TrEMBL record:
The keyword Electron transport does not apply. Residues 599-712 form the BBS7 helical hairpin domain. The gene is Bbs7. Residues 335-362 form a coiled coil. It comes from the Eukaryota. It comes from Himantopus himantopus (Black-winged stilt). Residues 494-596 form the BBS7 platform domain. This is BBS7 protein. Residues 21-319 form the BBS7 beta-propeller domain. PANTHER family: BARDET-BIEDL SYNDROME 7 PROTEIN. InterPro entries: Bardet-Biedl_syndrome_7_prot, BBS7_GAE_dom, BBS7_hairpin, BBS7_pf_dom, Beta-prop_BBS7, WD40_repeat_dom_sf. Residues 377-486 form the BBS7 GAE domain. Pfam families: BBS7_GAE (PF23360), BBS7_hp (PF23349), BBS7_pf (PF23361), Beta-prop_BBS7 (PF23743).
Length: 715
């Protein structure tokens, strides 16, 4: 039975960060709750709803931007004290808006995540975790990668303080005091943590996590080891998860899981079977959902889901019916309350339009005066540049607090722009002169009115590195633009992984020289994505990577004065050798480079590439036949005389064309990778085989795996 929920809109605040909106506890069951939200102008706003209108309770003065907002109070009492993290300070307010706490922490960076349990305060900056009790420092931990969220298991249930950190390297770190108790590997970089059912479940040990690649899971954090309960993939390719709450919106006595994603999708999962949650309801908003809460806000007795979006809109989905059926007829009549609400909104809109015209006139007059000073309007851009494992492409998501006019994308390295279904912008390409200006891509996206979020997809070529730039121009006057830069790294299609297959044939590159641990770490950061910028603690470190396009792997282990890189793909080793040599030369460091090439690895890599090559060649052949087959169909009237394989091409024509359009230059990229593999194999032997490349391309067109391997071995 699908939930019947209706959209309602509440007031708008400033731009909001993740987890900065909460509902204060109600005074009685099913009584209305107050909404409290903190924005990036540093303002905390608290309001209630009366007769469909927002009634302010309090509003603080602007200040530093608010990174987190949590509710607290003594254990086992209503959690109605409001705590906000702003810069390196935590402030506390009563539900009436009186400030009772201003705690300046000893953190050198801004607070990124916060959790409150009774007198215990858990704070995280980028890499540092701090635990305070009654504002006194208790414990400290330095994480190996960036911390995205923090949580503590309920003390009244588990009888000890068990903090859990969600870290960017796809790991949940469970702490005991200042020490690491154990690590939990999760399928993607965790962005948000929540207690299952709002209280950790029956045991108090259950944590729900959401990842930046849209996966959701439940893990029991027991005293000795983690127990995974369930995991939901992201089959629909939806956005990353930013917020989670538990609330019984369906009124069946069991709390549902409420999920908000960065592509604006709001989801409700219910637990029909005791094991795995099932998606019961979803609703698409136009921008990312920063916070989500379930409660009773608009009308006594009617529950709703409240979501705050990036630009500060508060949107509700209510169980209250918006209309009632009139008499015996089927026509629907609006209630008196709804009519008055529409009337007041119309009046407010007219008033705002007049005000905008007046301000515009005032601006035009002042800008033409002799003493005019031009001011550039400031605007916030929320951007995300991430590698997708499924199709080895990068997603660039740009979200602006106001409507986007256009986005110009420029790259100084060759990259492919891929199609995005959700993208309604009109794209136009400009011709590039790659020689003097290093311009390989110039594309302009013109957005439709009221577009505040734009998603682009690009695929890079490993070994070619540089910068992708996005020039974002919103629909504001005077015209202004922000430039955002994204690094395309030499091994850009590699993604961090927890482990690799050590039985594969591996090639080894060893570097020795007078370099520090921090220097070699900075070179690895330059070469590979998803490596923390901060130099790791300890004397040595190992990272594992997987190539998302080919499935080959890389192991990188290094310390002061020595680095060892192992891969089953010779081209990966070749790229590393070239880039690391160049970086060391820049710093005038002499490197002693040695390598051990495993001949078997070439055959192994070709076998990994071949199924992809065969599939893409077959797809290209089918696509080239479609026009001719359609012409035959028009001339003959039917296609019964065709062989079954040609009939199936006609039946699947739309899907084949869609897939081919989504993956431009895919076959070209595979040809390029095999050519690089061929050149790199012989480069390590000191032989130049570039003259044999045309012959190799002829063999590739024939798509014979044995012939290809034989050519590699005989050349």
């Amino acid at each position: 039975n699908r939930a019947r929920l209706t959209g309602v809109v509440f007031p708008q605040v400033g731009v909001t960060a993740q987890k900065t909106m909460r509902l204060l506890p109600a005074s009685g069951r099913k009584a209305r709750q107050k909404v409290v939200v903190g924005d990036q102008d540093g303002v905390v706003t608290c309001f209630g709803i009366k007769k469909g209108e927002a009634v302010p309770v309090f509003k603080t003065l602007p200040g530093q931007k608010i990174a987190r907002l949590e509710l607290g109070g003594a254990l086992n009492t209503p959690q109605e004290k409001i705590f906000v993290a702003t810069g390196s300070e935590v402030r506390g307010f009563t539900k009436r808006g009186k400030q009772f706490l201003s705690f300046e922490t000893n953190l050198t960076e801004s607070i990124k995540a916060m959790h409150i349990s009774g007198a215990d305060l858990f704070l995280c900056a980028s890499y540092i975790y701090n635990h305070y009790c009654d504002c006194k420092d208790q414990h400290y931990y330095l994480s190996g990668d960036k911390i995205n969220d923090v949580l503590c298991l309920p003390v009244d249930k588990v009888n000890c303080i068990t903090p859990v950190l969600a870290c960017q390297d796809r790991v949940l770190r469970v702490l005991q005091g200042s020490d690491l108790l154990y690590e939990v590997e999760v399928p993607g970089p965790p962005t948000v943590l929540a207690l299952n059912n709002g209280n950790g479940g029956d045991s108090g040990e259950e944590i729900v996590y959401g990842t930046s690649d849209g996966k959701l899971g439940l893990i029991q954090i027991s005293g000795s080891k983690p127990i995974p309960k369930w995991e939901i993939g992201n089959e629909k390719k939806r956005g990353g998860i930013l917020c989670i709450d538990s609330f019984d919106i369906l009124g069946d006595g069991v709390k549902e899981l409420l999920v908000g994603r960065d592509d604006g999708v709001l989801e409700i999962y219910n637990f029909e079977s005791a094991d795995d949650p099932a998606l019961q309801y979803d609703h698409a908003l136009s921008e990312s959902i920063a916070s989500i809460q379930g409660g009773c806000v608009g009308k006594d007795g009617y529950d709703e889901i409240l979501a705050s979006t990036y630009s500060g809109w508060l949107t509700g989905l209510t169980t209250e019916p918006v209309h009632r059926e009139g008499g015996s007829g089927e026509e629907l009549k609006l209630s008196q309350e709804m009519q008055s609400k529409i009337s007041s909104l119309r009046n407010e809109l007219e008033h705002l339009q007049i005000k905008v015209l007046q301000e515009r006139e005032k601006y035009q007059q002042s800008s033409q005066s002799s003493t005019a000073v031009s001011s550039v309007p400031a605007f916030s851009v929320n951007d995300k540049f991430t590698l997708n494992k499924d199709d080895a492409s990068y997603s660039l998501i740009l979200e602006v607090q106001t409507a986007i006019d256009n986005v110009l994308v420029q790259s100084d390295v060759p990259i492919d722009l891929l199609d995005v279904d959700k993208n309604s912008a009109v794209v136009s390409f400009s011709s590039c002169d790659s020689e003097p200006n290093s311009n390989f891509l110039l594309a302009t996206y013109r957005c439709q009115a009221n577009t505040t979020r734009l998603e682009l997809k690009v695929r890079s070529i490993e070994g070619q590195y540089g910068t992708l730039q996005a020039y974002v121009t919103p629909r504001i006057q005077p015209k202004t633009c922000q430039v955002h830069q994204y690094q395309i790294k030499p091994l850009s299609l590699h993604q961090r992984t927890h482990s690799i297959d050590h039985d594969r044939p591996m090639n080894t590159l060893t570097l020795k020289g007078q370099f520090s641990f921090a220097e070699i770490h900075s070179w690895v950061v330059f070469c590979l994505p998803e490596v923390p910028e901060k130099t790791p603690a300890g004397e040595t470190i190992t990272f594992y990577f997987q190539n998302t396009f080919l499935g080959t792997q890389l192991e990188s282990t290094y310390r002061k004065g020595e680095g060892c890189f192992k891969s089953d793909n010779i081209s990966t080793i070749s790229i590393l050798k070239d880039v690391l040599s160049k970086e060391a030369t820049k710093r005038k460091i002499n490197l002693n480079i040695s390598y051990d090439i495993n001949e078997e690895s070439v055959r192994h890599t070709l076998k990994l590439i071949h199924p992809k090559l065969e599939y893409q060649q077959l797809l290209a052949k089918k696509v080239h036949l479609i026009d001719a087959l359609r012409e035959l169909q028009v001339h003959e009237g039917n296609v019964d005389f065709l062989l079954p394989k040609y009939r199936s091409i006609l039946e699947e024509a739309d899907q084949l064309l869609e897939e081919y359009k989504r993956q431009p230059a895919h076959l070209e990229r595979l040809y390029g990778m095999i050519t690089d593999l061929f050149i790199d194999k012989f480069k390590f032997k000191g032989t130049n085989v570039k003259t044999k490349v045309p012959l190799l391309l002829e063999i590739l067109d024939g798509c014979d795996q044995d012939g290809l391997i034989a050519f590699f071995e005989a050349a």
